[in-house]
Amino acid sequence: MVYPTSASLPFKQKRRIFVLWALTVAFVTVQLIVHPIFPSKSIIPTLLAQVGTLLIAFGVIGRIWSTVYIGGRKNSELVTKGPYSITRNPLYVFSLCMIIGVCLVFGSLLSTAIFTLLAYLVFRYTAEREAVYLSHLFGEQYAEYSRRTPLFWPHFSNFEWGQVPVISSRALLVTSRDSLFTIATIPFSELVEYLRESGFLAMAIIVP
User: Fold this and answer.
1) Where would I find the H helices in 34-167?
2) In this predicted structure, what is the pLDDT of residue 9?
3) What is the mean predicted confidence (pLDDT) over 82-111?
4) Distance from CA of residue 52 to its chain's centroid?
5) Please, which residues have CB within 8 angstroms of residue 4's CB and are 6 or more apart in sequence?
6) What is the pLDDT of residue 1?
7) Nearest CA among 25, 205, 15, 16 for reference residue 115
8) What's the rounded Cα separation, in Å, for the pair 119 and 95?
9) 8 Å CB contact between 123 and 95
10) Beta-bridge mates of residue 34
11) How many helices (H) and strands (E) does the chain have?
12) How far apart are the first and last CA of the chain?
């Protein structure tokens, strides 16, 4: 009898999702007890919020674009065109952009640095585990793909449009739902700022 190895089994995405939800809860908790060092009427929080909003929008568009190419075909077909021609994990790259954006919207550079690093480590670890499985699944085809396409950080000179596949409505629905949740953090950040200004949230810790 041949027993399955870690290489022949797909990575359990529930673990990644659980860790990201744990980071989300931790992030929200931190935002309720800390206060950015920058004055609310300073131009710096405004600039951070604007950059953060742009990154969230960029990440949302990027995730939808990636889903158009991969939706319904993951692990059944090796997708190498569109966003997958510049990085093997565009969904993780664009998700990281969204996370950076959310952190910046709340106005703390320290929180942005910490949670961006933690999220990156989660995505990087997951990408490496998935690469092992895909290598087992697609063999030399994936080996050739990995030689020309980076695991995480995009290599834009490799870009190829390719043919847009049949779009999976279910995959787009899931991505849109997750994107709406992320977009909702923008008005939530405004609510947190209002509660701080009104004195309902005590400034327990002041951070840069």
Assistant:
1) 43-70, 90-105, 109-138, 140-148
2) 55
3) 95
4) 13
5) none
6) 34
7) 25
8) 9
9) yes
10) 205
11) 7, 2
12) 58
Identify whether the C-beta of residue 88 lies closer than 8 Å to the C-beta of residue 151: yes
pLDDT of 144 > 90? The answer is: yes
| Radius of gyration of the chain from its Cα atoms, rounded to whole angstroms | 19
- Angle 13-33/109-138 helices, nearest 10 degrees? 180
Q: What angle do CA 68, 69, 73 make, to 5 degrees?
A: 105
Q: pLDDT confidence of 177, banded at 50, 70, 90?
A: confident
Identify residue 146 by its one-letter amino acid code. S
Nearest 10 degrees: CA dihedral of 93, 47, 205, 26?
A: -20
Residue 198 burial by CB count (10 A; 0-12/13-18/19+): exposed, middle or buried?
A: exposed
Say how many residues make up the chain: 208
d(CA 160, CA 92): 19
Residue 203 binned pLDDT confidence (cut-offs 50, 70, 90):
low
Give the pLDDT band of residue 71 (cuts 50, 70, 90). Answer: confident
Concatenate the DSSP letters of all residues of 29-58 into one string. HHHHHEEESS-TTSHHHHHHHHHHHHHHHH
Cα gap 96→102, rounded to integer Å: 10
pLDDT above 50 (res 41): yes
Burial tier of 18 (Cβ tally within 10 Å: 0-12, 13-18, 19+): exposed
